[in-house]
Structures are given as C-alpha cells and as structure tokens.
Design a protein that fits this description.
Elements: H1 4-15, H2 41-76, H3 80-83, H4 85-88
Length: 89
C-alpha cells in the first residue's frame, strides 16, 4: 500500500501547472509527405517522434486515470463506477 507521503506528493503534482515547464512543439510536421516518406528524412523522423510522443501521452493519461479509479475503489467500494462516472467515461 502507498504511504501518506505519496498522497501528498500526488496532490502536489495535480496542483502544479505544467504549461511553463516544457516548450514542445505540439503540432505535427507540415512538410511530411506520407506518399513518399523517404523524400525528406528529417521530416519523417520528426513525424515519427511526434507520433510516439502522442502515444506515450495517451498511455500516461490512461495510467493516471487507472490510478485515480483504484483510489476511488478504495474509498467508495463497489459503487466507485457510479460515484466517479466522469473518470470512467
């Protein structure tokens, strides 16, 4: 079981605004040609990096939601899906 220190750190992470910490270009490269991907190798690698980054973000979001649902289950018991419907859907 996780300790109380973890809960305070977790609540701290939820309260932090991450907008100013990292400067990633969130858009995919515009010059990539999917019909001929090897025409511009730099653009191909940028597109691949962007796709992988987006997939990792989705995976980490799912992990966070899964962890929140675990805590909801610990607190609410079998009614956790009804009580925390906004996390499930």
């Amino acid at each position: 079981m996780l300790g109380a220190g973890y809960l305070s750190f977790y609540s701290f992470l939820e309260s932090v605004n991450y907008q100013g910490f990292f400067d990633f270009d969130e858009s995919s490269p515009d010059e990539f040609d999917s019909a001929n991907p090897y025409k511009d190798p730099v653009s191909m690698l940028d597109t691949r990096e962007h796709t992988v980054r987006e997939k990792w973000i989705d995976i980490e979001k799912a992990k966070i939601i899964r962890e929140k649902l675990y805590w909801c289950y610990c607190i609410e018991g079998v009614n956790h899906l009804q009580k925390y419907y906004h996390l499930v859907h």
